[in-house]
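Listing S7. Sequence submitted for prediction.
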Amino acid sequence: MQPASLAQPAPPPRHIAVIMDGNGRWAKARGLPRIAGHRRGAEAVRATVSACRELGVEYLTLYAFSSENWKRPATEVGDLMGLLRHYLRSELEELDRNGIRIRFIGERARLSGDLVALIADAEARTMRHAAMTLVLAVNYGSHDEIARACRRIATEVQAGRLAPQAIDEATVARHLDTADIPPPDLILRTSGEQRLSNFLLWQAAYSEFLFVDTLWPDFGRSNIEEAIHEYHRRERRYGASSG
């Protein structure tokens, strides 16, 4: 047996997904407008992406804008879309240089044409990178994703390309936005809230959940390290008995 001092550290979760919550509360606590919290949150994104790459995480999914976020005031929605544009324009060069692939999940039809073009360019430019995959969920809602998958499956059945009796869990998974992405091993939510908020409901079947009190703008490398440490303390049984 290897001495404890020479033992290899346990690998990190292959896929971490994060519900980034608390930007508004962070700003309110400091008497600042909500956009200030969102801007500080963008800095937390940069720090988290960097930390995950350095720690060996293969996939990092960030819930950037949900399909329910359109209900927010138009000015805030505009600010969030503007921040996403700024992030893609300012960070793409570094992500490309660091070998990080960018993937987007969510319905793009409602997004502006220039933003869709930025998304397509980022995906095309980084599609062959393998250091890490950064998945941004934009205009994403899991109910909508599953409904769209069902429509695609129904179209294949109607066209005679798929027999109804051949539809199984793997069929559904292949038609989701995340078809080429493994399920998350760990789903983390900041700010103390303890719900999934329509995020990766199908994919989360055997994920570990971690809810932390830290507001997203204050989140950084030490928080990711603590989350990975907590993940390693869990026993994942995938429905099997604990003995």
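Caption to Listing S7: primary sequence and predicted structure tokens for the chain studied. The first strand starts at residue 15 and ends at 19. The chain has one domain: 10-138+184-232.
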